[in-house]
Amino acid sequence: MSDTANPKTEGYSPGLEGVLAGETALCEIDEARSGLRYRGYAIEDLAEQASFEEVAHLLLLGTLPTRKDLEDFSAQLRSQWLLPGPVEAFLGVMAPDAHPMDILRTGVSLLGMADRDAADGSREAQEVRNAHEVNVQKSIRLLAQIPVLISSTYRVLHGKRPVQPRADLTFSENLLYLLTDRHDDATARAMARVLNVSLILYAEHEFNASTFAARVAASTLTDLHAAITAAIAALKGPLHGGANEAVAAMLTEIRSPERAEGWIRRALSQKQRVMGFGHRVIKTEDVRSRIIRRHAEALSRLSGEMRWYEIATILARVMLEEKGLHPNLDFYTAVAYLVMEIPPDVYTPVFVCSRITGWCAHVIEQQDHNRLIRPRALYTGPPRQRYVPIDQRT
Questions:
Q1: CA triplet 70, 360, 56: central angle to 5 degrees?
Q2: Which of 139, 211, 332, 374 is most deeply packed, by most CB within 10 A?
């Protein structure tokens, strides 16, 4: 009997593809129109007009902020920059060959133990304080601390002088400064604006693997840091995170536009996987890719470094011709990050600087209306067996 005729398999979808696994008010993916909205706001409007701090406020607190709200929110972020002593000590004993995502995962777990509200995950504490508000405050601290944790990790591993964020810089300006030392000139400001766009585009995308991992963990009523640690662990896997790093590696291997078409056609003929194309949910052109492509091109022209963008456009043309695949968000983001000279080994941690807003918002939403996530499995093992005592087994 085929699976399609087997009543036990009815409704089963490998990888849960297309399965509705929950409700959310955070993000809507409009597949028919290739659209994306955060709490009802079109991603095009947010990317072109908002700051990342505004989008973080929208996701974590539920509304676009007034100017006073934004000032207060930014002040909260500035007040939470410093890493606790145990985390600083951990950074001093990291193995020099440790994976940045392993360090980030462990660092966030340590931040959870050192957080001032660490005890507020208990039932007794929840009766004393509002659990929702505790989660919001933890989320704001994580949003402030993660860029510093990532920058400190990179600088320690590469023997560079540590730096602290500056109070006169925005979130994206500080992130660029922490990772590249760039600030206070027109090119740096242009780069920070494009980085701001990329952070907004990466901030949230419904029930992707890492977000779902966070929600599954959160549904047990574990603490927020534990749920975020689960999300980071899921993101480390190459089928989810690391795509923009892989695209950057591909572009740097190709080196010049003249080599691009031959390289991609050779890769396709050898059935190699080409990173940065296609999406599990979005089957047409991703609106986020259109947005970041435009900004990557403009930044490339401003910086006088066009080769990465030119290579990318050739690869995109051939992939569409030969495979019918469109670039995803990671593809042209890698171009922008190469122009900014952000170190490729921190591309995925930079993604975390953005997606932490979506992850935390999902944890808050899950625990505000919680039901333990416990799906069923389709059994494919042997039929019922008779137990044979050990002395009778042959």
A1: 20
A2: 332
